[in-house]
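2024-03-11 09:14:02 DEBUG pipeline.ingest accepted 1 chain
2024-03-11 09:14:02 DEBUG pipeline.ingest length=397
2024-03-11 09:14:03 DEBUG pipeline.predict start
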Amino acid sequence: MKRWNDKLRPVELLEVDKQAHKMITAFALYILNSREMSSEKKQQLAEDIILGGIFEYLYRLVITDIKPPVFYRIKSNPEHYKQLTKWVLEQLEPRIQPLGKEFWGKLRAYLAKPEDNSLARRILSGAHIFASSWEFSLIKGINPGDVELKEIEENFQVLLREYADLKGMEDLIQGSKQGLGGFLNLCGRLRFQKRWSQTPRIPETSVLGHMFIVACFAYFFSLSVRACPLRRQNNFFAGLLHDLPELLTRDIISPVKQSVQRIGDLIKEYENQELELRVFALLKEPVYDELTYRLRYFLGAEGATEFDSTIIKNNKITKVTWDDLQNVYNEDCFDPKDGYLLKVCDNLAAFIEAYTATRNGITNEQLQHAQWKIRNLYQKQPFLEGVHIGSLLADFD
């Protein structure tokens, strides 16, 4: 789904990339705006933000051809918005119901209240406006004759100011190259890095969009394995951030990483060094301490990686097995994160990228081999509790 497709664009701007940038922004705003909350309120806010982000993405999947000014006109009329939402739900129902009645009920309730002014909605709306304005900054300089540009830019400035009371938003409004603004500018640039960069595919996908898809898969799988609330939230955010080091190394394909053990270790070592120099150095102010702590936890810290299952016990990050995470540590008090589940979701996203390209007529050895390798992997290791990965992949025939 292309964005700004009536404007001259330096690169293709896609809805899934924008949604990823929006949700990384929402994650950062969530951390900054929940510092004084109790653990219960903080956890509920995270859940509301994650679900709201997924629901809004699903809605936009259906209405993607409606230009924003037209959509906002519809949204301003309650009866027209109700009719549009009814049609959207009819399109989504057969695809969403396998996730269960509870998820479907929450989706319907969320879309029925577009004017809800809760903190979660305000964080999502502020993140949405920021991500859209960031995209606009890419195209405004190469569309000098477009009479809409001045009005669009002024509208973004007004809309961003509506969320200036949120902690962190002033940094984004000012366009700071340090702090939160600098960090989110770096994250936005992941849309320029293409997955499978040496392999022609239709459609192409970016590292940024891939991260959002993995995050959604991780949340859905967490529901299937009955993960505790904090575990499923950690899995979403870990998926959303898992390829952040590719800001610094680009998308190094798995055969290179896995060719020699020492090569993979060297890449990881370099990634960690560059994260310190180019990412965490932007967030060195004390106000960002919790944000950097969570980033480190999700990306791998104290000897762990993003694909290790971990808990926090006695204030120490500890690696655990899948079985222990599922049967012993599946409680909020352990702050659990599913590295193994995340790797399954990463592989599934890669499989679908290769499969979709093949279905669209692009056939080459790399795409065929990737599909065969992932299928073969989950013939040998087919199960997550409640989910048979091999059977899931068999549906793509």
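2024-03-11 09:14:41 DEBUG pipeline.report The chain has a mean pLDDT of 88.
2024-03-11 09:14:41 DEBUG pipeline.predict end
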